Amino acid sequence: MSRVQPQGLYTPLPVPEHPWEHVSMDFVLGLPRTQRRKDSIMVVVDRFSKMAHFIPCQKTDDTTNIAYLYFREILRLHRVPKSIVSDRDVKFLSYFWKTLRHKLGTKLVFSTAYHPQTNGQTEVVNRTMVAILRTLVSKNQKDWDVKLAHAEFAYNRAPSSTTKSSPFEVVYRLNPLVPVELMPMCKARSVSRVAEERAKEMRMLQEKVQVQIEKANKRYEERVNR
To answer: Which pLDDT does position 140 carry in this prediction?
Structure first.
């Protein structure tokens, strides 16, 4: 029998002032198992810039494995966060930080918060990520884990309806170049068909990402305003 904690008892969410100062962590479970035995995705979102990282994992990964993934995939790129918000239970979050502190070799006390009501925000990212993957994976859906990097790049390069800028622009002050922009301009009349197709694919992917972000944000706003 589940118990619902009154909303008034939730810890107030800190207001981020800098990138990767306060983050949220969520999981997309039950995906088709890939050849690399991955069946889930750990989604980590910076609450300031809305930048996200999509990390393939296994549903059976314990807290130690999750802490290791966070250390390897997030901390090597960003600062140690002041807080992590998740809908995982308190025991999970407590042991997660304990393991992370051990890996960092520090006795610093970090903050965690159990916030089911933040699901709406992470849901925007999750829905968008799944929509992008659908445009990238093969028919048997067994290669989604190797396409996550493409999905993450496309998501972080698309403008957010919240900030009106892409996460890349908020964090790094500019958008990274895409392969099409690195191609030298050809003065000859003949143009590579492969290059044209690649450019077309990149434009379509960015357009699809933006459409999915707008749809997901609209659903979230409707949900909040009910």
So the answer is: 77
Rounded to whole angstroms, the Cα distance separating 53 from 70 reads: 10
Give the tokens for residue 187. Answer: 């003065």
Which secondary-structure segment (H or E) carries 67? Answer: helix 63-70
| DSSP one-letter string for the chain | ---PPPGGGSPPPPPP-STTSEEEEEEE--PPP-TT---EEEEEEETTT--EEEEEE-TT--HHHHHHHHIIIIITTSPPPSEEEESS-HHHHHHHHHHHHHHHT--PPPEEEE-GGGHHHHHHHHHHHHHHHHHHS-TT---HHHHHHHHHHHHHHSPPTTTSS-HHHHHHSSPPP-HHHHSPPP-SS---HHHHHHHHHHHHHHHHHHHHHHHHHHHHHHHHH-
Q: Is 156 helix (H, G, I), strand (E, B) or coil?
A: helix
CA separation, residue 171 to residues 47, 60, 91, 216 (Å): 12, 33, 32, 22
- Stated as kind and residue range, the H or E segment containing 41 is strand 40-46
DSSP element (H, E) containing 57: strand 52-57
pLDDT per residue as tens digits for the range 195-224:
667 667 767 776 777 677 767 666 656 665
Mean local confidence (pLDDT), 32-59: 93
- Cα 75 from Cα 58, distance rounded (Å): 20
